[in-house]
Amino acid sequence: ISNTELYLEDPNMGIVEKLSQFLEPTNQSAVFIIWDDVGMGKSSIRDFVARSLRDIPNYFTIQITDPRLTSFQMLRVISEELDLTNLPVNRMIVKKRLRERLVELAQKGLITILWVDEAEKITKDILSELRALTDLKTEDGLKCCKLILSGTPSLIHKIERYIEKDPEDAAAFDDRASLNTFTLNRWTVDDIYNYWKLIADYCGGANPFDESCAEVVLELSDGKPRTIAQVTKFAIHKKAVKNFFEVNLEGPIITPHDVIEAVEEHIGELK
Fold first, then answer.
1. Domain boundary at 130, 158, 182, which?
2. 36/66 same-domain check
3. Same domain, 149 and 212
């Protein structure tokens, strides 16, 4: 699923549409939160959006995939990504230069997007600093910086606690009803089968899965994209090995029995 050519758009069309609206130049709230369980494809969404924006000259995306930093380290990382050099050790000066840089870029028509993955790991201080950056506006009143936070359900709980405990500092999140929040969709049987067809097209072959396998994989995975991709890999590998060493009357078609057998074998190897 990490292969950029194997990104299945259909299950997440809703979030792509919402993100497109969110990224439009505006004076409204500039914080977008994507939260869901591990394995739901948050990183894939991030990579898809980043690839899509590369060809649009109006945006510059900074991806922070390991946010276990101090708030000052976070400011320095963002500053360096924006080509600010010879940064001092004085926090206030770094913050001032970063804010000036964001406004400068926005005045030239370039909106900076900060995408923090695994954002449930960020501290309250980092959240406060990032939120403050989204307050910046051009002379025309347009936001200079957009913030996207993606993480597990604990992320939204952390932000809710932040709003409750520090209502004044959290005011820039607007009110709770106006937060841009989104959870990802679990895949359906049709999504799983379309994913297999996407793999087949990418490899230049035929879809090896019997259509009834999709129901089995859905039950095994609970619709989580990462688990679906893993089960798919196990089943294809198991069938390939079996066909190589044995005369198989079923031919190359992967059956529900093959899927279950492949998963059981993998679980056995982990013990």
1. 182
2. yes
3. no
CATH classification of the domain holding 50: 3.40.50.300
The rounded distance, in Å, linking the Cα atoms of 37 and 67 is 18
CA angle 231, 186, 219 (to 5 degrees): 45
Side chain identity at residue 35, one-letter code: W
CA count, 13 A, side-chain hemisphere, 121: 11
Between residues 14 and 46, the one the model is more confident about:
46
Residue 188: other Cβ atoms inside 10 A: 14
User: How large a percentage of the chain has pLDDT more than 70?
Assistant: 86
- Residues 146/22, Cβ–Cβ less than 8 Å: yes
Q: Which domain holds residue 35?
A: 4-182
Average pLDDT, the chain: 84
What is the helix (H) or strand (E) element at residue 201, kind and residue range?
helix 189-203
Alpha helices, H only, 30-184: 42-54, 71-81, 91-107, 124-133, 153-165
Same domain? For 175 and 195 the reply is no
Number of domains in the chain: 2
Determine the pLDDT at residue 212.
Answer: 94
* Domain final position from 134, 155, 182: 182
In whole angstroms, give the CA distance from residue 99 to residue 79. Answer: 9
Per residue in 168-215, pLDDT (tens digit) is: 555 555 544 456 888 888 999 999 999 999 888 888 888 889 999 999
At residue 175, the pLDDT reads 46
Q: How far is residue 253's CA from residue 75's CA, in Å, rounded to a whole number?
A: 53
In this structure, the answer to whether residues 58 and 131 fall within a common structural domain is yes
233, 140: one domain: no
Determine the Cα–Cα distance for residues 194 and 7; give it in Å rounded to an integer: 11
